[in-house]
Amino acid sequence: MPEIPDKCTCGAVLVENALFCHRCGRPTRELTSTEQEELAPPPIPAPVTPTLALPPQPLPISFANPIALRVAFLMSLGIMLIQMLPLLNYLFFIWWMLAGYAGVRLYRRLTGWQLTVSQGARLGFLTGVFAFVSLAIVFSIAMASSGGRDLLDQMVKQDPRMSEFVNNPTSLGIMLLMVMIMVFAMVTGLCAAGGALGAKFSPPERKA
Predict the structure, then answer these.
(1) Do 96 and 191 touch, CB atoms closer than 8 A?
(2) How far is it, in rounded angstroms, from Cα 121 to Cα 100?
(3) Each residue of 44-55: pLDDT tens digit?
(4) What's CA 74's distance to the chain center, in Å?
(5) What is the pTM of this model?
Protein backbone atom coordinates (compact mmCIF):
# COMPACT_ATOMS: atom_id res chain seq x y z
CA MET A 1 0.00 0.00 0.00
CA PRO A 2 1.51 3.40 -0.93
CA GLU A 3 2.39 5.76 1.88
CA ILE A 4 -0.27 8.33 2.76
CA PRO A 5 1.10 11.89 3.36
CA ASP A 6 0.33 13.72 6.60
CA LYS A 7 -1.02 16.81 4.85
CA CYS A 8 -3.04 17.48 1.73
CA THR A 9 -1.95 19.90 -0.94
CA CYS A 10 -4.59 22.27 0.43
CA GLY A 11 -2.78 22.35 3.78
CA ALA A 12 -5.32 20.32 5.77
CA VAL A 13 -3.95 17.69 8.17
CA LEU A 14 -5.14 14.32 6.92
CA VAL A 15 -6.77 11.72 9.11
CA GLU A 16 -4.87 8.47 9.45
CA ASN A 17 -5.61 6.02 6.59
CA ALA A 18 -7.97 8.55 5.01
CA LEU A 19 -8.64 8.03 1.29
CA PHE A 20 -9.86 11.61 0.70
CA CYS A 21 -9.15 14.98 2.19
CA HIS A 22 -11.91 16.07 4.49
CA ARG A 23 -11.55 19.69 3.33
CA CYS A 24 -11.19 19.61 -0.45
CA GLY A 25 -12.13 15.99 -1.22
CA ARG A 26 -8.94 15.30 -3.12
CA PRO A 27 -7.74 11.64 -3.00
CA THR A 28 -4.77 11.19 -0.71
CA ARG A 29 -3.32 8.56 -3.08
CA GLU A 30 -4.13 6.76 -6.29
CA LEU A 31 -7.06 4.37 -5.69
CA THR A 32 -6.95 0.76 -6.77
CA SER A 33 -9.61 -0.71 -9.10
CA THR A 34 -11.19 -2.60 -6.19
CA GLU A 35 -11.47 0.57 -4.10
CA GLN A 36 -12.92 2.45 -7.06
CA GLU A 37 -15.62 -0.23 -7.51
CA GLU A 38 -16.47 -0.10 -3.80
CA LEU A 39 -16.75 3.70 -3.83
CA ALA A 40 -18.70 3.86 -7.09
CA PRO A 41 -22.37 4.91 -6.59
CA PRO A 42 -24.93 2.16 -7.03
CA PRO A 43 -26.68 2.07 -10.42
CA ILE A 44 -29.94 4.00 -10.58
CA PRO A 45 -32.80 1.60 -11.27
CA ALA A 46 -34.86 2.27 -14.36
CA PRO A 47 -38.17 3.97 -13.64
CA VAL A 48 -41.09 1.58 -13.46
CA THR A 49 -43.85 2.52 -15.87
CA PRO A 50 -47.23 1.90 -14.24
CA THR A 51 -49.45 -0.44 -16.23
CA LEU A 52 -53.02 0.62 -16.75
CA ALA A 53 -55.61 -2.02 -15.94
CA LEU A 54 -57.75 -2.68 -19.00
CA PRO A 55 -61.49 -2.90 -18.46
CA PRO A 56 -62.94 -6.42 -18.70
CA GLN A 57 -64.03 -7.39 -22.18
CA PRO A 58 -67.69 -8.38 -22.62
CA LEU A 59 -68.39 -12.05 -23.17
CA PRO A 60 -69.70 -13.06 -26.59
CA ILE A 61 -73.43 -13.77 -26.74
CA SER A 62 -73.54 -17.53 -27.17
CA PHE A 63 -74.40 -20.73 -25.34
CA ALA A 64 -71.04 -20.40 -23.53
CA ASN A 65 -72.19 -17.16 -21.85
CA PRO A 66 -73.86 -18.09 -18.52
CA ILE A 67 -75.46 -14.67 -18.06
CA ALA A 68 -76.97 -14.75 -21.55
CA LEU A 69 -78.32 -18.25 -20.93
CA ARG A 70 -79.87 -17.16 -17.63
CA VAL A 71 -81.54 -14.15 -19.24
CA ALA A 72 -82.81 -16.21 -22.18
CA PHE A 73 -84.24 -18.85 -19.86
CA LEU A 74 -86.04 -16.26 -17.72
CA MET A 75 -87.54 -14.60 -20.80
CA SER A 76 -88.68 -17.95 -22.23
CA LEU A 77 -90.27 -18.79 -18.88
CA GLY A 78 -92.17 -15.51 -19.03
CA ILE A 79 -93.42 -16.43 -22.52
CA MET A 80 -94.71 -19.78 -21.30
CA LEU A 81 -96.56 -18.18 -18.40
CA ILE A 82 -98.26 -15.67 -20.69
CA GLN A 83 -99.15 -18.43 -23.17
CA MET A 84 -101.16 -20.12 -20.43
CA LEU A 85 -103.41 -17.09 -19.95
CA PRO A 86 -106.62 -17.00 -22.00
CA LEU A 87 -106.97 -14.36 -24.72
CA LEU A 88 -103.40 -13.17 -24.17
CA ASN A 89 -102.06 -16.30 -25.86
CA TYR A 90 -103.51 -15.11 -29.18
CA LEU A 91 -101.01 -12.23 -29.14
CA PHE A 92 -98.07 -14.62 -29.07
CA PHE A 93 -96.12 -12.75 -31.76
CA ILE A 94 -96.12 -9.61 -29.56
CA TRP A 95 -94.93 -11.48 -26.46
CA TRP A 96 -92.14 -13.20 -28.36
CA MET A 97 -90.80 -9.86 -29.61
CA LEU A 98 -91.17 -8.31 -26.17
CA ALA A 99 -89.24 -11.23 -24.67
CA GLY A 100 -86.28 -10.50 -26.95
CA TYR A 101 -86.52 -6.76 -26.24
CA ALA A 102 -86.75 -7.21 -22.47
CA GLY A 103 -83.92 -9.75 -22.52
CA VAL A 104 -81.51 -7.16 -23.92
CA ARG A 105 -82.53 -4.62 -21.28
CA LEU A 106 -82.15 -7.18 -18.49
CA TYR A 107 -78.75 -8.30 -19.78
CA ARG A 108 -77.51 -4.73 -19.81
CA ARG A 109 -78.79 -4.18 -16.27
CA LEU A 110 -76.98 -7.29 -15.02
CA THR A 111 -73.66 -6.69 -16.82
CA GLY A 112 -73.58 -2.97 -17.61
CA TRP A 113 -72.54 -3.73 -21.22
CA GLN A 114 -74.18 -2.05 -24.17
CA LEU A 115 -75.08 -4.64 -26.82
CA THR A 116 -74.89 -4.03 -30.54
CA VAL A 117 -77.80 -4.83 -32.85
CA SER A 118 -76.25 -8.16 -33.88
CA GLN A 119 -75.54 -9.09 -30.26
CA GLY A 120 -79.10 -8.20 -29.29
CA ALA A 121 -80.39 -10.39 -32.12
CA ARG A 122 -78.25 -13.30 -30.90
CA LEU A 123 -79.55 -12.88 -27.36
CA GLY A 124 -83.10 -12.85 -28.73
CA PHE A 125 -82.31 -15.98 -30.73
CA LEU A 126 -81.19 -17.76 -27.55
CA THR A 127 -84.47 -16.72 -25.94
CA GLY A 128 -86.35 -18.13 -28.92
CA VAL A 129 -84.49 -21.43 -28.68
CA PHE A 130 -85.46 -21.85 -25.02
CA ALA A 131 -89.04 -20.81 -25.79
CA PHE A 132 -89.26 -23.31 -28.66
CA VAL A 133 -87.92 -26.15 -26.51
CA SER A 134 -90.57 -25.37 -23.88
CA LEU A 135 -93.32 -25.25 -26.51
CA ALA A 136 -92.08 -28.50 -28.06
CA ILE A 137 -92.19 -30.27 -24.69
CA VAL A 138 -95.72 -29.02 -23.97
CA PHE A 139 -96.85 -29.95 -27.49
CA SER A 140 -95.34 -33.44 -27.22
CA ILE A 141 -97.09 -34.05 -23.89
CA ALA A 142 -100.37 -32.82 -25.33
CA MET A 143 -100.08 -35.03 -28.43
CA ALA A 144 -99.22 -38.07 -26.33
CA SER A 145 -102.33 -37.61 -24.19
CA SER A 146 -105.91 -38.34 -25.16
CA GLY A 147 -106.41 -34.69 -26.04
CA GLY A 148 -103.94 -35.03 -28.89
CA ARG A 149 -105.95 -37.87 -30.42
CA ASP A 150 -109.12 -35.83 -30.10
CA LEU A 151 -107.42 -32.97 -31.92
CA LEU A 152 -106.47 -35.25 -34.79
CA ASP A 153 -110.05 -36.58 -34.98
CA GLN A 154 -111.37 -33.04 -35.21
CA MET A 155 -108.92 -32.27 -38.00
CA VAL A 156 -110.18 -35.31 -39.92
CA LYS A 157 -113.81 -34.24 -39.43
CA GLN A 158 -113.07 -30.76 -40.74
CA ASP A 159 -111.08 -32.06 -43.71
CA PRO A 160 -111.48 -35.76 -44.65
CA ARG A 161 -108.28 -35.59 -46.69
CA MET A 162 -106.36 -35.28 -43.42
CA SER A 163 -107.15 -38.93 -42.69
CA GLU A 164 -104.37 -39.95 -45.07
CA PHE A 165 -101.83 -38.16 -42.88
CA VAL A 166 -103.35 -39.20 -39.57
CA ASN A 167 -103.48 -42.91 -40.42
CA ASN A 168 -100.01 -42.93 -41.99
CA PRO A 169 -97.30 -42.62 -39.29
CA THR A 170 -94.66 -41.56 -41.84
CA SER A 171 -96.79 -38.82 -43.34
CA LEU A 172 -97.90 -37.70 -39.88
CA GLY A 173 -94.30 -37.54 -38.69
CA ILE A 174 -93.22 -35.50 -41.73
CA MET A 175 -96.14 -33.12 -41.25
CA LEU A 176 -95.33 -32.63 -37.56
CA LEU A 177 -91.65 -32.10 -38.39
CA MET A 178 -92.52 -29.41 -40.93
CA VAL A 179 -94.81 -27.73 -38.41
CA MET A 180 -92.06 -27.79 -35.76
CA ILE A 181 -89.55 -26.27 -38.21
CA MET A 182 -91.98 -23.48 -39.07
CA VAL A 183 -92.69 -22.81 -35.40
CA PHE A 184 -88.95 -22.79 -34.61
CA ALA A 185 -88.26 -20.27 -37.37
CA MET A 186 -91.15 -18.07 -36.26
CA VAL A 187 -90.31 -18.13 -32.54
CA THR A 188 -86.57 -17.55 -32.92
CA GLY A 189 -87.12 -14.97 -35.68
CA LEU A 190 -89.54 -12.86 -33.64
CA CYS A 191 -87.40 -13.09 -30.49
CA ALA A 192 -84.28 -12.15 -32.47
CA ALA A 193 -86.12 -9.18 -34.00
CA GLY A 194 -87.16 -8.05 -30.53
CA GLY A 195 -83.57 -8.38 -29.28
CA ALA A 196 -82.26 -6.33 -32.21
CA LEU A 197 -84.84 -3.61 -31.52
CA GLY A 198 -83.92 -3.64 -27.83
CA ALA A 199 -80.25 -3.05 -28.66
CA LYS A 200 -81.08 -0.50 -31.36
CA PHE A 201 -83.29 1.71 -29.21
CA SER A 202 -81.60 1.13 -25.88
CA PRO A 203 -80.72 4.50 -24.27
CA PRO A 204 -76.99 5.31 -24.05
CA GLU A 205 -75.11 4.87 -20.81
CA ARG A 206 -75.01 7.81 -18.45
CA LYS A 207 -71.51 9.15 -17.87
CA ALA A 208 -70.58 9.86 -14.28
Answers:
(1) yes
(2) 8
(3) 776 777 666 665
(4) 17
(5) 0.63
